[in-house]
Amino acid sequence: MATFKVNGVWHTLDIEPDMPLLWAIRDELGMTGTKFGCGIANCGACTVHVNGQAVRSCVTPVSAAEGQEITTIEGLAVAAAGSNSTPSGLSAVQQSWIDHQVPQCGYCQSGMIMAVSSFLASNPNPTDAEIDASITNVCRCGSYPRARKAIRALANA
Amino acid sequence: MKINRRRFIFGSVLVGGGALFTYSATRPSRHRRANVDLAQGEERYITSFIKIEPGNEITIYVPHSEMGQGIHTSLSMMAADELDANWEEVNIEQAPAIDLFANGDLVRGFAGEFGVPDFLMGLVGASAFAVAEIGNLQTTGGSSSVRYTGEHGMRVAGAAAREMLIEGAARKWEVPVEELNTKLSYVHHNATGRSFSYGELAAEAALMEPPENPRLKDRSQFNIMGKAISRNDIPAKVDGSAMYGLDAHSDDMLYAAIRMAPVFGTKLVSANTQPAFSVRGVEDVIELEDSVAVVADSYWRAKKALELVETEWEASENDSVSSTDIAARFDRELADSNGSKDKEVGDADAALSSAADYIEASYRVPYLAHAAMEPMNCTVHIKGDTADLWTSTQDALGIKGRVARIAGLKEDNVTFHQTYCGGGFGRRLPFNWNMIDHATLIAKKFNVPVKTIFSREDDMQQDYYRPAVHSNFKAAFDAAGNVTAWHNRFTGPIQTAGSSHIPYSIENQSIRVVDGDTHVPIAAWRSVDHSQQTFFTESFTDEIAHRAGKNPYQFRMEKLQEHPRHRKVLEVAAEAAGYGQFLPEGHALGISVQESFGSIVAEVAEVSMDANNRPVVHKVTCAIDCGWAVNPDTVEAQIESGIIFGLTAAMYGEIRIENGHVANGNFPDYEMVRMATTPEIEVHIVESGEALGGLGEPATPPIAAAVTNAIYILTGQRVRELPISKHNFSRSTPVATV
């Protein structure tokens, strides 16, 4: 059995302890905003927050998330509400992503937004070098220039 | 513009449509068929792309896949502008995968230019396709959507619908159409101050035959086109609600993990399937001709169980083939064969034999995978004699037909469910069927939905690759140092006619292609042959310029007297990049230009070598002449995307063949440009006002040579083989030029 909280709701699942969090979220809970990209924690498409920290869920066993609070892209706006939300009901990062028209195919963007959200929470005014070192997600469409602009706009806010 | 996510949600039923508006002799008109087959209640189709409801809600149906290029928005802008619709009240939907929505204008567009679309040729079985049959596809590729479907379909549909609505108002008011005008989804009669909403006129207009030649707007009359308009697909892509093929989900769904024959074209001999059943949730292990699949109640369990299955594959003559063998074979072909004609001008051989001087060079590029972020996947639910289908695809109708054929069902009995596409780049075009076929065969054994997923490794190893190509050059010079001949032999096949041709005025040219077939399956890869050929031709052009003692920019300008559009983009890019001006110490500019898919693109790369003598690309300045820009913001986004895609290939891209199969596994073996390695990109749109050019691909071809031409200036080392990461550089002999 595995028990953890996803976007404010407790779930107890009859699954193996070594099932990666990604597949528990996608296949068991049916929440598809978190994406499968590489399965080896290289591309970051599967990034979620565990207690506010970005983790790559494709290699995080559910046993490591036992009793923890998990936020996925679907819950990001609510998790950010109060501290960091915008009138549109989105988090500031999500809104900046729209303002800068960042996504293309969009498939990697859940993970990218989750990684950036966690990064900016701990480092609200990053340098370019810090952005480069921390945001290592793969985007095959090459949304990086716009993602960088969207991050800078938040840092300057 | 309203975002209507509701109708794009997985599993929802798309009502209505509006097929491609066409003036073919086919009667009844497609919009009438749409009104009979699809309209519900008081909805009416006014031309086949456009649906208008009594409350003046307008829906535009886009018959192309949205895979990040912003095509749903751009094509809707084109129809809505000609319609004089109120953009704030326009809904955008993807047209369903039914033949009413086949994008025949795409085919007509290509037919006018080249005949059959390039990306459908040279592929398995494509030669059997007549143009008419291809017209029944719903393909997104060839950078074609805006310039063909948009120009010849969406704009015409919007203009026709507007004329029909005006005609409807004229009849009701009994006034001449000349006295009426349209604005923001209303028809006005200014003389009497009367107005009708489009919704009030839709029922009557829908009964009319569309006008044969509706009048399109001049660019000066555009209200929507030409503006940087936010894409309709982006809000769903920031909150996790955007659905991709991989996101098909139901509680009773089963999942398949598959192991394909590692050596292309070989078959399964035997599989020891028993150990797989020890894993919880495993339903079945299915042996197919060339693969074995485990079906379980979760993908992770299926994958875990598959690892326990031992397989034996048939031996093949390709079992020992490596990239080195393929390269040696290409070199032999180039040495032994004069190949077949691609282009011959003058007498290059004679010019070479009488030359005062000549240079020669051999270039090569490896196979490349597409590596779209969304791994290949396909969900099929067979329900007796009908089926439901979910997969991210660049050709909804083609995929639907394929699944129907494999499943033995009637095409009309297969329902294709629209989703966004997590990257295409050619991998999801027609004929690249491998995992679609397998998913269908697996699903046939169950009466619940079965989702087959390629892992990243499967995707890397079972792709249809950008071809490896070798290309040999010679150039002749006269005593004054002027280039007199261009001599080029490269390995085929040619997938994109003309991509190896140069725009430069060189008196004698001989370009020929030799056989480059191997057992490695190939397909279109973003910009198809242009990405390899432009690296070759723009690098060798640079070699000629340097040998002639000319500045590479000036050399190109001098040799482009007959190509003013090329000259213009070169000039704009060079000037914006500061060409010939002060650069930071240790930086150099490399330049490259290529016309592809109707657009002309010049790129200038600013490069330096870091402390470890690795190249760093600081900035890419790009000028594109795409005729004019429908949505300048998505033009810029596609340029950024195309450059980064090409830069990844130039810097890192290499699929290695070992023992007959692909040796690369996951991203660490197939590195990507990421945030830290992305240069600043500056885009200049040159509006020549010429016919619209494509955008998804044309920025990819020039980047490799732009970077390697700069590396040459920095190091004196000419990169003739990609990827750049294979080379060791020194800064001992920089080239004093520009």
Plain-language structure description:
The complex is a heterodimer of chains A (157) and B (738). Chain A is built from 6 helices and 5 strands; from the N terminus they run ββαβββααααα. Chain A has 157 residues and is an alpha+beta fold. In chain A, strands 2-1-5-3-4 form a 5-stranded mixed β-sheet, sandwiched between helices. The model of chain A has no long low-confidence stretch (mean pLDDT 95). Chain B has 738 residues and is of the alpha+beta class. Chain B is 28% helix and 21% strand. Chain B is built from 18 helices and 27 strands. In chain B, the strands form 7 sheets. Chain B has a 7-stranded mixed β-sheet. In chain B, a hairpin with a 5-residue loop joins strand 23 (599-609) and strand 24 (615-625). In chain B, helix 2 runs parallel beside helix 5. Chain B is globular, with a radius of gyration of 27 Å. Chain B starts with 29 loop residues before the first helix and ends in a 23-residue tail after the last helix. Residues 1-28 and 110-136 of chain B have low confidence and may be disordered. The chains are: A alpha+beta (157), B alpha+beta (738). The interface between A and B is large, with 58 and 60 residues.
- Helicity range of chain B: 25-40%
Distance between the termini of chain B: 49 Å
Molecular shape of chain B? globular
Strand count of chain B:
27
- Mean of all residue-level pLDDT scores of chain A: 95
What is the beta-strand fraction of chain A? 5-15%
Largest sheet of chain B: 7 strands, mixed
Short description:
Chain A is α+β, with helices and mostly antiparallel strands and 157 residues long.
Key terms:
A: 157 residues; 6 helices; B: 738 residues; alpha+beta; seven-stranded mixed β-sheet; five-stranded mixed β-sheet; disordered N terminus
